[in-house]
Amino acid sequence: MSFLHKEGDPYVGVLVSGVCGKGECESQTRQAIQEEMFEVGAGAEAQVEAIVCAVCGKIEGIRKCGRCKAVAYCGKDHQKADWKTHRGACVSRDEES
């Protein structure tokens, strides 16, 4: 992507993903966005705006997954509800390296 902008200059990245409307599909899309932001090193402001419950989209009382930090939930009930979906992608940042 360096041919589009100078290294270190700010830029806007757009991630497009089809979402079928089912909770599982939306949850996977939200997780993919969080992971992409982590990889490109998005600024703290952008990361804070994107942290929402992976199940309901709520922004209050959000806590990130203790293992991967890539997805967040508003409570234990939503974390448990999303575990079947999230389990396959949940990898500790230490394990990725």
From TrEMBL:
All residue ranges annotated as the MYND-type domain in the record: 53-90
Coiled coil: none
Protein origin, superkingdom: Eukaryota
Natural source organism: Dactylonectria macrodidyma
Protein name, as recorded: MYND-type domain-containing protein
A molecular function (GO) term: zinc ion binding
Keywords for the protein's UniProt record, in alphabetical order: Metal-binding, Zinc, Zinc-finger
InterPro entries with a match to the protein in the record: Znf_MYND
Family annotation (Pfam families): zf-MYND
Record bears the keyword rRNA processing: no
